[in-house]
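Before the break, one more example. Copy the sequence into your notebook; we will annotate it together after we see the structure.
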Amino acid sequence: MSLRYFDTTGRSSQLETATPSAAYTMSRIAILILDACRLSEAAWVAETWQLVNEALSWSDEAAHRYHVCVLSAEKGSIACASSIRLLTESIEDYDPRMFKAIFVGIGNTTFKPRVIDWLILAGPDVELIALSNNAEALLTQVRPPSRDAASRSTEKKMCGMAAAERVLAMAERDFGTLVRIRSEMLRANLPATTNGARTANIHGTFALSERIEASLQWIKSNHSGAVSISELARRASMSERNFLRRFKTEVGQTPREYLARVRLENAQILLVQTDLPVDKIARRCGLFNGDQLRRYFLKYLSISPLEYRALARERPVTGALIETLNAGA
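Here is what the structure looks like once it is written out:
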């Protein structure tokens, strides 16, 4: 048995079922889009991989960049939950074992047998990461949960981690803490919108409704003070329940999660661009004190604010520095 795939030059080749080399597998990532997948989930993961690649721009070596493929069960365009069609390649053109990780998104509970067979072929060395609850159900069929209590606990924790966070954790594991820090800084400096629509870095875009877009802008402008769900819902002329549902559906995060991200991003910028003490930065970002800011950084970046400031200001970025960071981990 052999599968057809496209190499980095775009040429079509035949791939025998022998296991791909470890060096080749390390840099290949797949985003598998199945029926009725929410485009926002896939777009957020794709954008994070792009940020990681930009953070790795210190090296020209191909092995230091990730190659991301957008796949589906059928080659061509596939309809996402938003009715936006996304251009993809077919899983039939790729051996799943060539990937380091496969992110899976699906919006319904109907799974095609050949998709399951393809994911099973990936084997235990390829990380399978769900983008939705339905995708978790699919992956449970591919890899049944472990019977061991400790393993089940680890699996539950991994499934609960946001997919974008898994991307950053993977990059940090491969290249060191500084890559994660630089990726987060790049995200903090990205424009939030382009002509009123949030940009997705895959073959398509997803648009935010006017009221949710206004809510995002209000959070960004007022993150240094108290931000309540009731106030946000009132400004959007919605009930709190409807506002929370719409916000989570369109943004992919709850308002509180989005607020935490905005505060963290602004703290990152202030730490790098100013010499303000941590307590003052915390207050400017809507947090009570430096201890609360420290908890934010440890929770989301696994590093303290002062460590972040020191590492983010390091110049130049070299392989030796990355090795030093890895050795200290």
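The two ends are 42 Å apart (CA to CA). The chain has a mean pLDDT of 74. Try to locate both features in your own notes.
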